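Sample entry (270 residues):
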Amino acid sequence: MPCAHNQIDRKSGDSAMEWTWEIILIVAAGGFVAAFVDAVVGGGGLIAVPVLLAAGLPPHIALGTNKLSGSMASLTSMITFTRSGYVDWRRTGKLVPLTAIGAVSGALLLQKVPSDWMRPLIVVMLIVVTIYTLLKRDWGVIEGKAKKLTKAGTLGLAAAALLFGGYDGFFGPGTGSFLIFTFLLLGHSFVQAAGNAKLLNFTSNVSALLVFIAFGQVAFSIGLLMSVCMIAGALVGSRVAIRQGSRYVRILFVAVSALLIARQVWILMG
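Predicted structure, serialized as tokens:
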């Protein structure tokens, strides 16, 4: 790809790259696909970040720029799921402050500690999530009311919001999938879980984005281009999930989880 001559202003985070049709098409198509997948089952960051790297951005700026476009995509998905009644604001809304605190903390920690050491742990977590979902064939398929939380369950959910918020700010890939899995454990259907996950995912994206902006690690030019495409992908993806129902989301959830595992293993072996 003719990106070797591109010059990146690492201090400001924005790029002085020479735009080519090849770069524009890769960013546009990659952003749309990433947002479509992320709107339904999460994991869009594992598509979007490599696309930004291929466009010539250094890793730390690619992560920050992904938060800009990811925020726009998750906002679009959240609004769509909310309008269809698939976001439990009464329960999930209480978790927003914890998710925000976690995301800011994770993004600040990333400035001091490299995040690559997390890949083996993520592979293990994704394998557990995928196997558990496969074994419980009807899990999350039937629409119904969520379980009533005990005190222990409430504390566990609060801890999950803080933990996954921190994970999203620090590393990110698969956050949406882990959030969906958490809500499935509470008795939500796949579509309901996806809607609730989008609220927290939007919160963590925006919170981490503010930190990346403060450190000058967002390339706004390419980020805004990807944002437009990701908004379109998120709109289509969330509508497809709502119309097709939980069985469709379950199949895609397992498929995407398997692909995420394969990609992480490939990177580790490489």
